Amino acid sequence: MEYEQVMTPIPGTVIRMTDVPDPVFAREAMGGGFGITDTAGGDVCAPVSGKVIMVAKTGHAVGITTDAGLQYLVHLGLDTVELEGRPFTVDVAKGDRVEAGQKIATMDVDEIVSAGKSTTTVVVVTNSKKLVDHVDVTVGDAALGDTVAEVYLTASQPSEVTAAEETAEPAEAADTEAAPSPQRPADLTGFDATAWDIINGIGGAENVRSVTHCITRVRFYLKDGNLADDEAVADLDGVIDVVRAGGQYQVVIGADVEDVYEAVSDQLGTEGDDTAASDAPEKERPTTVLGWAKYGFSELIGVITGSMIPVIGLLAASGIIKGILSLLLTFDVIVEESNTYQIINAMSDAVFFFLPIFVGFTAAKRLGADPIIVSIIGGVLCYPSLVEMSETEGDSALLGMSLNSDFFGIPFHVAGYSYSIFPIIVAAWLASVIEPWLKRVIPNTVRMIFVPLFEVVIVSLAILLILGPVVMFISTGIANAIQGLYDLSPTASGMVIGALYQSLVIFGLHWAVIPLVAQDIAANGNSYLNAIISATMVAQGGAVLAVFIKTKIEKIKTLSGPAAISAFCGITEPAMYGVNLKYGRVFIMASIGGAVGGLLTGMFNVNMWGFTGALIGFTSFVNPADGVDSSFWGYLIASAAGLSVAFVLTWFFGFKDSDVDKGREVKKVRLGRREPN
């Protein structure tokens, strides 16, 4: 079998790749090779003969292609890209021909150590999966230029490459009719590598219209959904699953979603949520009534998602603070008249009271309006004198709403907007419509003053006089309808919602419900619906916990353990996409547990005064007025029952280790390949 000998580029102690203190290199996600520790640095030589195909801008990495087609990456230190090139001097350039043992760079280990980084250097064959059979490494102390490894090529690999292959860059496809897939740049590691692989799997950066993220998913709007390879993306390291829903291509990441999103944004050249490429075409408009309905719903979900995601964490944190405050009152640690109570209450209530300002900012970013201007409009909606005005009764009414104010003699209804969500989203939409028109008609010399002036006046009046009351009438009607269905039979409603709610999460449609819950809590201080949703989260955690305890497969344990913790903290996507849905019956057993938990939640009339649910949100079930009451005990009973039922059913009927081999097949049936909405 043909092989290549590899020298150590620096002196030190040679270790196996699996012992390199970096998870990406250690699991050989970048390829096979070896590491060098305890190095004194100094000169760095080429480990093999070949052509330099890459030199990192920061000097921390050099890529070399050999005549046999193997691509070697010499990575100097770990996380040293952050040092902006200070410890390195590179003596070669892209396109140079180098010989094994030739000096290619210098490395200052003192600079690296003083910066708190590791000097461990890695030599990795980045195209190992295709071309390498195995790598033999001689571990132990080695001097500069010692032969320390033999890389054995696969039997089908030709010994020489053509001239065209030699000149082709690894990150670009060859200019032929059947171009090969692009090669990931050798200097990308960690989240940057994951981001590159995702972008490549969805059709490249040119196929991305815009991108945002939520608690666990990076959400893409693609120009052509057919270009995305669901299976390839779902199988990437760092990706849990892929979902097409709501007009979005959703890549489920889990806890690392913010890091992956930032890496994706950097590589796409975007600066924030939903920053679309300048050349992105308009979405194809539907031609049928049903098509328009689907299109409108998809757009609505997208706007709600983009508007609510950035404030969800704040709502959750505020809910926990509210619960803690209730406990402090219940156990007589503080009293309502104290300054301590007022300070903590301000911390817990501020995000709800000023919700129009925060949601206005995020909605404007999503819709393309000026976030600062829309935030000011949000400030108008929750201005203290208007809040007082909303609390007064008028002499007449329209559509059941009191006409409690007038504007130049025109009577209208001032609603309480300080805890609202939907009116400011409509305001952001209206601002996105009139703002471009104002910029066209107002001269540049006075645009900075008069665009905000006219926009604030026009949009504020439109919301206060017309759109706001209408939106509040509709949203209040929907909330009352949901509450009415619950009141007809709390037990039946709890069971049905408990069984089906997590199915909405699969497609991201729960974002149509979350704003209703948030507004219900903001306006009324509580939400029965959210209490049922909490039980479904605990049930999903109970099912994946059973998998964690039962399985003997280390990979499944590694995945299911953190997923259970996440579900008990109110985030179910890692459990659902990582385990429950993938192995089919587990999700069914979890849904049965959710139905039982929801049924008991309704039976005990469990109410919820905070936004955060599941086990971590226990303080949300403490009544601010009465302290620990029947809602709290009902929550504990319903949560315990939902968890237990899901756990037991999964243990006996939902999962066995032999299901792991069928996991991908289950997901294929569930996801399929759908046309983009």
Automatic annotation (TrEMBL):
<feature type="transmembrane region" description="Helical">
    <location>
        <begin position="341"/>
        <end position="361"/>
    </location>
</feature>
<dbReference type="GO" id="GO:0090589">
    <property type="term" value="F:protein-phosphocysteine-trehalose phosphotransferase system transporter activity"/>
</dbReference>
<feature type="transmembrane region" description="Helical">
    <location>
        <begin position="586"/>
        <end position="612"/>
    </location>
</feature>
<keyword id="KW-0808">Transferase</keyword>
<feature type="compositionally biased region" description="Acidic residues">
    <location>
        <begin position="166"/>
        <end position="175"/>
    </location>
</feature>
<feature type="transmembrane region" description="Helical">
    <location>
        <begin position="300"/>
        <end position="321"/>
    </location>
</feature>
<feature type="transmembrane region" description="Helical">
    <location>
        <begin position="632"/>
        <end position="654"/>
    </location>
</feature>
<feature type="transmembrane region" description="Helical">
    <location>
        <begin position="528"/>
        <end position="549"/>
    </location>
</feature>
<dbReference type="InterPro" id="IPR036878">
    <property type="entry name" value="Glu_permease_IIB"/>
</dbReference>
<keyword id="KW-0598">Phosphotransferase system</keyword>
<dbReference type="InterPro" id="IPR018113">
    <property type="entry name" value="PTrfase_EIIB_Cys"/>
</dbReference>
<dbReference type="GO" id="GO:0016301">
    <property type="term" value="F:kinase activity"/>
</dbReference>
<keyword id="KW-1003">Cell membrane</keyword>
<dbReference type="InterPro" id="IPR050558">
    <property type="entry name" value="PTS_Sugar-Specific_Components"/>
</dbReference>
<dbReference type="GO" id="GO:0005886">
    <property type="term" value="C:plasma membrane"/>
</dbReference>
<dbReference type="Pfam" id="PF00367">
    <property type="entry name" value="PTS_EIIB"/>
</dbReference>
<feature type="domain" description="PTS EIIC type-1">
    <location>
        <begin position="302"/>
        <end position="669"/>
    </location>
</feature>
<feature type="domain" description="PTS EIIB type-1">
    <location>
        <begin position="192"/>
        <end position="274"/>
    </location>
</feature>
<dbReference type="InterPro" id="IPR011055">
    <property type="entry name" value="Dup_hybrid_motif"/>
</dbReference>
<keyword id="KW-1133">Transmembrane helix</keyword>
<feature type="transmembrane region" description="Helical">
    <location>
        <begin position="494"/>
        <end position="516"/>
    </location>
</feature>
<feature type="region of interest" description="Disordered">
    <location>
        <begin position="159"/>
        <end position="187"/>
    </location>
</feature>
<dbReference type="InterPro" id="IPR001127">
    <property type="entry name" value="PTS_EIIA_1_perm"/>
</dbReference>
<feature type="transmembrane region" description="Helical">
    <location>
        <begin position="407"/>
        <end position="430"/>
    </location>
</feature>
<dbReference type="Pfam" id="PF02378">
    <property type="entry name" value="PTS_EIIC"/>
</dbReference>
<dbReference type="InterPro" id="IPR003352">
    <property type="entry name" value="PTS_EIIC"/>
</dbReference>
<keyword id="KW-0813">Transport</keyword>
<dbReference type="GO" id="GO:0009401">
    <property type="term" value="P:phosphoenolpyruvate-dependent sugar phosphotransferase system"/>
</dbReference>
<feature type="transmembrane region" description="Helical">
    <location>
        <begin position="561"/>
        <end position="579"/>
    </location>
</feature>
<dbReference type="InterPro" id="IPR001996">
    <property type="entry name" value="PTS_IIB_1"/>
</dbReference>
<keyword id="KW-0812">Transmembrane</keyword>
<protein>
    <submittedName>
        <fullName>PTS system, beta-glucosides-specific IIA component</fullName>
        <ecNumber>2.7.1.69</ecNumber>
    </submittedName>
</protein>
<keyword id="KW-0762">Sugar transport</keyword>
<dbReference type="InterPro" id="IPR013013">
    <property type="entry name" value="PTS_EIIC_1"/>
</dbReference>
<dbReference type="GO" id="GO:0008982">
    <property type="term" value="F:protein-N(PI)-phosphohistidine-sugar phosphotransferase activity"/>
</dbReference>
<feature type="domain" description="PTS EIIA type-1">
    <location>
        <begin position="22"/>
        <end position="127"/>
    </location>
</feature>
<keyword id="KW-0472">Membrane</keyword>
<keyword id="KW-0418">Kinase</keyword>
<feature type="transmembrane region" description="Helical">
    <location>
        <begin position="450"/>
        <end position="474"/>
    </location>
</feature>
<dbReference type="GO" id="GO:0015771">
    <property type="term" value="P:trehalose transport"/>
</dbReference>
<dbReference type="Pfam" id="PF00358">
    <property type="entry name" value="PTS_EIIA_1"/>
</dbReference>
<feature type="active site" description="Phosphocysteine intermediate; for EIIB activity">
    <location>
        <position position="214"/>
    </location>
</feature>
